[in-house]
Amino acid sequence: PMKRVLFAGLLLALLSGVVSAHEVRPAYLRIQQSDAESFDFLWRVPARGDLRLGIYVSPPDNCETSGEPLTWQEGGTYIERWSARCPGGITGRRIEITGLSSTVIDALARFERLDGTTQIVRLTPADPGFEVTDSESWGQVASTYTMLGIEHILLGIDHLLFVLALLMLVPNMRTLVWTITSFTLAHSLTLAAATLGWVHVPQQPVEAVIALSILFVAMEIVHWRQGKPGITRRMPWLVAFTFGLLHGFGFAGALSEIGLPEHAIPLSLLFFNVGVEAGQLMFIAAVLLVWGIVKRISWPDWAWRIPVYSIGAMAAFWTIDRISGFA
């Protein structure tokens, strides 16, 4: 029935206000210990054009920068690199990100110790600083990567639109379970394979094909509504698995920018994936909740075209935009 898909219009209207959220990337701070009192800093800040976000690293008071920082810009990221001498070390001292509390983004801090262990901390506008520790906390790794996974999927409008388009084609709850399970299995496989370095796929073509996958499913919805159901309507689980492999490479691209703690790679990979799944299930639950409300409303027969064509148009734009970015 037409009402089955119209609920997507309301969701799409809500999501359209955060289309740019896919471009909201976290800031990234990496601190590498070179000896007991020497540290190398790398600071990556989101930028739009020549305008960088006004957030800065405030190191411990005992640190003194050696020379002038190196600064440059790569695409939409402003990068700074410098070295510092910190008598007595930085363990037990606090590092702040000034200006973060006035933004809507997070920052990821990564401290690499001499012994190869790593401290990973997710900083937020509400809590923009952290205390450097001398040992690795498994609980901290798990919570940090779970939240990173949740944020990535909920801010990844392209991944969510693919899931939404699939939901519009699924005929019943049993098929829905199989479809989501297939998508989960597929992107978990490629996420692990790419993150662990077993498979190397260029990120730009992957992002373009992800956009193309959304366009494909949108076209399948139109064919179904015209009385010509395609493979996605008949076997949505197969399409979910096939394109899920590509979406997994997309997740891996985001995770590669963050990095994994060397001594906790399986744990951090596991919990990043757990976070992705948690965020995906939250989105599906929201879709079903909205559907339960709007299915009681009578809509004109043509109304189903609004959400479907909107999804298709957005996917087509992304496809062209991402392909044009190859050059």
Considering the chains and any ligands shown, give keywords for the structure.
327 residues, 51% helix, 3-stranded antiparallel beta sheet, alpha+beta, single chain, elongated, 7-stranded mixed beta sheet, 10 strands
Main β-sheet: number of strands, strand sense, barrel status? 7 strands, mixed
Strand and helix order: HEEEEEEEEEEHHHHHHHH
Mean of the pLDDT scores?
84
Helical coverage, percent range: 40-55%
Uncertain runs are 1-23
| Alpha-beta content class | alpha+beta
Q: Whole-number radius of gyration?
A: 22 Å
What's the total count of β strands?
10
Distinct helical segment count: 9
- β-strand percent reads 15-25%
Query: Given the C-alpha coordinates, what overall shape results?
Result: elongated
Please give the alpha-carbon distance between the first and last residues.
44 Å
